[in-house]
Specification:
Thiol Ester Dehydrase, Chain A
Length: 148
């Protein structure tokens, strides 16, 4: 499967509205890379207070979206029993750069790549764009843990 819908993503991740930020995952190369879509809307939960009259998507939520996209890519590529009853926790963000503000009513595209894995620890990099303009990029690590 080259594309995951929001419903497919909900079957892989524990995140739910309003914290499930990614709307689809496509161009999937199993356990290697994918493109996530985040539809940033005028009524997105974070827009009302960040900032009134001049809304932007918070950088921390861009990093969260990177993490969700990476978790979905990884869970999609693993056997179900490997990720069932597991969670993916962000361990660190080595680098995150925010180049331009992400404004509502845009399609934020996140190009993510798994750089390496060692057991349950994975390292990723990503680039966020709107209309082919780089908005942010990051390098981060996450780990797969047992629920409870």
């Amino acid at each position: 499967m080259d594309k995951l819908s929001k419903k497919d993503i909900e079957n892989l991740l524990p995140h739910r509205e309003p914290m499930l930020l990614i709307d689809e995952l496509n161009n999937i190369k199993k356990l290697f890379s994918a493109t996530a879509i985040v539809n940033v809307k005028k009524d997105s939960f974070f827009v009302q207070g960040h900032f009134p009259g001049q809304p932007i998507m918070p950088g921390v939520l861009i990093v969260e979206a990177f993490g969700q996209a990476a978790a979905a890519l990884t869970a999609h590529g693993l056997d179900k029993e490997t990720y069932e009853n597991k969670l993916v926790y962000l361990m660190n963000v080595e680098k995150a750069r925010f180049r331009k503000p992400v404004l509502p009513d845009c399609k934020l595209e996140l190009y993510i790549e798994a750089l390496r894995s060692h057991g349950r620890v994975w390292k990723y990099k990503g680039e966020a764009t709107v209309d082919n303009k780089k908005m942010a990029d990051a390098v981060w690590s996450a780990t797969i843990v047992d629920r409870k």
